[in-house]
Design brief:
With about 375 residues, the protein is an alpha+beta fold. It is built from ten helices and 13 strands.
Length: about 375
């Protein structure tokens, strides 16, 4: 095995073993070349590259420029000035990080950091341009903001503050939206079917609301996002945020909303600052939704893994169970799921008891086949 291949294999093994950061402020730095190049894994399991340089590195490709952040970083060994690039989450990006480290070192990082970076920039851009639009954090933010916009538009002005408070945003929470005793989990997929990752039983079972009140309803909103070619219509994230702001009452509420958007998913991987980033190419992509389906998870025809299925297994931690669901387009005629924004948004608001919404029939209507 030649030295270059051996170095790549070593880097790949070391990066694969990097622990995720415990929070957004702490990192375990792994130095790939002493005082020149380090990697870390943030709290969202994304690999970060730190390229030490006293002066900001210049990027010539838009998708790379958008992700390049230069500042003084603090570590247990002391402060250092470096440019950071955050790669999307995924095992293949761990491999890319190892390859980039090898290429940077072989391209003369110790002699001329800018020249070495310019040599690897096309490789980095190729990988990022293929995956940035599909970033699950970006898709998730768009899905939740799309529901928030429609909820705000549907209610009378005095109720908009309650809707804004119902969105968890960046705050750790068991629900994406908690409208009184009604919980809504928003799942956004680029698939043509309603298939989604479930991170725990709490996402498919009613429990206690964020306020500690027993939930009466739990819905999963399945959104099928489709990214469009330039000029094909649709909307963009900056336009979506503008639209939400237009129905957000008051300057203070708008500033709070923008802060929550910036922090969504952890400000290191997305950090969408609306005023700063609205013109950046990364966020210019246009999208629409192929489908919107609201699933009532109390329906006994929805057959997914439940907590009761694993209770009593002494060698299994129920809190560690994650799985993928595939929900049919028709479970109970037109009752479940409820399809389309115009039908599902008023339904959720009525269930939550918002003024001006016709109250649908109560919970438990799916207890037996009809």
């Amino acid at each position: 095995m030649d030295d270059r291949k051996a170095t790549y294999e070593r880097f790949r093994t070391e990066i694969a073993g990097l622990p995720a950061a415990p929070d957004a402020s702490n990192r375990h730095l792994l130095w790939m070349s002493e005082s020149l190049l380090a990697v870390a894994r943030n709290e969202l399991h994304c690999v970060e590259l730190f390229i030490v340089s006293e002066h900001p590195l210049r990027a010539s490709i838009g998708v790379v420029e958008d992700l390049l952040a230069h500042q003084v970083w603090t570590s247990s060994q002391g402060d250092f000035s470096a440019a950071r690039v955050v790669l999307p989450r995924g095992e293949h990006f761990d491999q890319l990080a190892a390859l980039l480290c090898v290429e940077l070192i072989d391209s003369g990082l110790g002699e001329d950091g800018q020249e070495a970076f310019a040599a690897v920039e096309p490789l980095l851009a190729l990988a990022l341009s293929r995956d940035m639009v599909g970033d699950p954090v970006l898709n998730g933010l768009i899905g939740e903001l799309s529901l928030l916009r429609r909820l705000l538009r549907q209610v009378a002005a005095p109720s908009r503050a309650d809707v804004l408070a119902a969105w968890a945003g960046s705050t750790p929470s068991s629900r994406d939206f908690q409208l009184g005793s009604v919980g809504v989990e928003v799942k956004t997929t680029q698939s043509t079917v309603s298939t989604h990752h479930v991170s725990g039983f709490h996402q498919v079972e009613r429990g206690l609301s964020n306020g500690g009140v027993p939930e009466t309803d739990l819905f999963v909103l399945s959104l099928g996002i489709e990214w469009l070619e330039a000029g094909a219509g649709g909307t963009s994230l900056p336009e979506l945020v503008d639209s939400v702001l237009s129905v957000t009452p008051g300057h203070e509420a708008q500033e709070s909303l923008l802060a929550r958007i910036k922090q969504y998913g952890g400000d290191i991987t997305i950090g969408y600052d609306h005023r700063r980033d609205r013109s950046k190419g990364r966020y210019a992509g246009r999208f629409h939704f192929r489908f919107e389906r609201l699933y009532d998870m109390a329906d006994d025809r929805i057959e997914v893994l439940r907590r009761e299925d694993v209770n009593g297994l002494k060698n299994l931690d129920p809190e560690s169970v994650e799985f993928r669901v595939l929900l049919e387009t028709k479970i109970r005629g037109d009752l479940n799921p409820i399809a389309g924004w115009n039908a599902l948004v008023p339904y959720v608001l009525a269930k939550a008891g918002f003024p001006g919404q016709d109250k649908p029939e109560g919970p438990g209507r799916f207890a037996a086949d009809s």
